[in-house]
Amino acid sequence: MKALMFGWEFPPHILGGLGTASYGLTRGMSVQKDMEISFVLPKPWGDEDQSFMKIIAANKVPVVWKEPNWDYLNQELAGRLTTDEYYHFRNCIQEDNHHIGTNGIGSIEFSGRYPNNLQEEIRNYDAVAGVVCRAMDFDIIHSHDWLTYPAGVHAKYVSGKPLVIHVHATDFDRSRGNVNPVVYSIEKAGMDHADHIITVSDKTRDTVIDRYNIDPRKVTTVHNAVEPLSPAIQAIEAQHNTKDKVVTFLGRITMQKGPEYFVEAAYKVLQKTDNVRFVMAGSGDMMEKMISLVASRNIGDRFHFTGFLKGNQVYEMLKSSDVYIMPSVSEPFGISPLEAMQVGVPTIVSKQSGCAEILNNAIKVDYWDIDAMANAIYSIITYPSMYDYLRVEGKREVDGIIWENAALKVRDIYNKVLGWK
Questions:
Q1: How many CB atoms lie within 10 A of CB 121?
Q2: What is the bridge-based pairing of β-strands 140-144 and 105-106?
């Protein structure tokens, strides 16, 4: 079977869980001997692992440019646009023409990130998808997350091949319900046009069904997993240069991740003991607000902000921690708790996270219950028997949550969509 996948990020250049999940799933699927995967990215950096699938660079795909018939457009647009709007429209076309070359062949530039002109990059990615799918031989299309849904839909109608979309998150998760109507419309269109929808948790499945009015028969949950630890990661040493216990929050510092609840729980723990330090590892639009909150609680001497961590830095931080906590307000899945448990770190997750559906050896609390959160932190750092149990049993549990099993579920969806069994 040949799958054409559309993604937005891929290790080692990742900004969140999307790239990690895309890597894990494709690698897990590659174990199936008859599976061939071509993975399209807006702008690969050249150091991605292609040992198990082929990466296609959207920014290298030749796109044919043809000069518009300006007389026809002038006539058609007369009276529909103001003078300023018309010249803006014309300048946009001419700018694209400049990049490609008049009546020539060229490629479209992509940032490879999440730029301010994200909507424009999504539209350009959509255009490239039409070119890619005409040149490829494949059986099924798989689009990862909302940014790639338009590309997947375009490829479906150009090729006539079925489309599976993978919902790693919805805007209801990212915005705490303050949904961006443009993003919602892209998500909704992708779901409506898809032949089947994969969600990363039952929580996300319920959101898709209830908030986007999708037929439940069209939506299947495939929980995320973790990659086995490489020898290089196993060899990483903990950088624990203090006798104090270390409690870590690692993720984007945004309202979705609930960083303020972590700070408030830290404040409560520090009322009981002072032999603990708290680390907020990551970056995001709430960073300054969290620094101010820490200062207002007068716990700055016990609190550390590391900034964004990547690659081995993540595992250095995890291995240096005594407790890992993910207090997300709305988390479709959340791979980082599994990564923490994988290296033997006792873990606390919010009940509002998708990974809580499959974890039995992590402590689960409501994100807003800072008293329960603080009590859980205090108990783990105070009682060795509790720490040891969660460390050993958590690792044992997560070692069995592997991508090969998730990949088999995805393959079963492919087969059903294609009518192969």
A1: 23
A2: unpaired
Q: What are the backbone dihedrals phi and psi of residue 262, each rounded to the nearest 5 degrees, phi first?
A: -65, -45
**Phi-psi bin for 298: left (phi > 0), alpha (psi -120 to 50), beta?**
left
> HEC states along 221-252?
ECCCCECCCCHHHHCCCCCCCCCCEEEEEECC
Going by their DSSP bridges, the two strands 36-41 and 2-6 should be labelled as parallel
Q: What global pTM score does this model have?
A: 0.87
Per DSSP, helices labelled H in 66-138 are: 70-77, 83-100, 118-135
- Would you state the structure tokens that stand for residue 209, as one six-digit string? 């069904």
Name residue 284's amino acid.
Answer: G
The distance from CA 331 to its chain's CA centroid, rounded to whole angstroms, is 11
Per-residue pLDDT of the chain (421 residues; tens, 9 = 90+): 999 999 999 999 988 789 999 999 999 999 999 999 999 999 999 999 999 999 999 999 987 655 666 676 677 666 666 777 666 656 655 555 545 444 556 788 999 889 899 999 999 999 999 999 999 999 999 999 999 999 999 999 999 999 999 999 999 998 877 899 999 999 999 999 999 999 999 999 999 999 999 999 999 999 999 999 888 888 988 877 678 999 999 999 999 999 999 999 999 999 999 999 999 999 999 999 999 999 999 999 999 999 999 888 999 999 999 999 999 999 999 999 999 999 999 999 999 999 999 999 999 999 999 999 999 999 999 999 999 999 999 999 999 999 999 999 999 999 999 999 7
Cα separation, 419 vs 416, in Å, equals 5
Cβ count within 10 A of residue 193: 16
Indicate the DSSP class of residue 218: G
CA angle 99, 5, 139 (to 5 degrees): 115
Instruction: Give which of 138, 111, 132, 120 is closest to 44, Cα–Cα.
Output: 111
Residue 70 to residues 64, 66, 94, Cα–Cα distance (Å): 18, 12, 11
For residue 341, what is the enclosing H or E element? helix 336-342
Residue 364 three-state SS: strand
